[in-house]
Amino acid sequence: MCTICGTPFVSETQEDHLCEDCLRKRPFYEATRAPYYYRGSIMTAIHRFKYGPKSLLGDSLGPLLARFAETWLHGSRNILTMPVPLHPKRLRQRGFNQSLFLARHVAKRLHTELDFISLRRVRYTSPQTGLKKEERRKNVHGAFQLNNPENVKGKTVLLIDDVATTGNTLNECARILRKSGSDKVLGLVMARAGGL
Known about the structure:
Blueprint: H1 20-24, E1 31-33, E2 36-37, H2 40-51, H3 58-72, E3 79-83, H4 88-94, H5 98-110, E4 113-114, E5 119-121, H6 133-140, E6 144-146, E7 156-164, H7 168-179, E8 184-192
Parallel strand pairs: 1-8, 2-8, 3-4, 3-7, 7-8
Antiparallel strand pairs: 5-6
């Protein structure tokens, strides 16, 4: 897989290395990882969790992601956990932020501070589903704002989301966080779309 964005490769090469996208333009985040591919049962569970009246699925998915985070970030210090925020309009429509559900489990397991207030989605955007790669990047550009930059200064921010496809949402959040003084940004998602 790519050592930065975590995209899985379909090749005979056994060693991890950078993908073409990360070689051409390095993302603002240090690394992104996911314990699952977005397909099969996990895709069904995430879809029901995100779009259906199944917010209780967060109590099953959250611990799975938290265990993976503990293994991946074992021994890491000075981490601030942040969910990718929803725009207030979408939050009202959905009734909850699925990324916050997951982030609560991760923060508890890692014994880190959880900040779900500072990073805000300030521009309502179209859903990323169905958009092409460049459209996804443009769709989220300028959509986020950090209200309390002092909260991230010198810290490693662990961004939590449910699914990564192109990584543009995580990258735009990371851009804002790095600009505001974060030491580094890591992305952790439940599942990675594409790949094998």
